[in-house]
Amino acid sequence: MIAVRDIGKIVAGIFSNPGRFAGRTIEIAGDELTGESLQRSLSRAAGRPIGYSRFPDAVLNENEFLRRLTALFDDGRLAGHADIGDLRREFGHLLSFDEWLDGPGRPLFEAAQNASSSAIALR
Length: 123
Prior knowledge:
Blueprint: H1 4-16, H2 18-21, H3 35-46, H4 57-62, H5 64-75, H6 84-91, H7 97-102, H8 106-122
């Protein structure tokens, strides 16, 4: 999970100092989240409860991709192996998911909520 503006900040930092980053592979993320932390953040931003439920084990046992994706949500590895502390030391502040929801992501989140409400009303 990383804000688009933070991707740009990291890319700009790398391009402005190519010798420092030549030959390196950098995994990037701005926050570490679990399904439950996403639920808390989205509920807070919406001002109402938003549920999170994982797929049942029976479904996960039949689908390798979903099982692996769910494991990432369960234990917070959505950030992969990115060292967010090191990234912040090298490139400056990176938005947390909550900061993104309260800032640049707010209009997108509100639009998504309105789209969901409209779809429910049409049914």
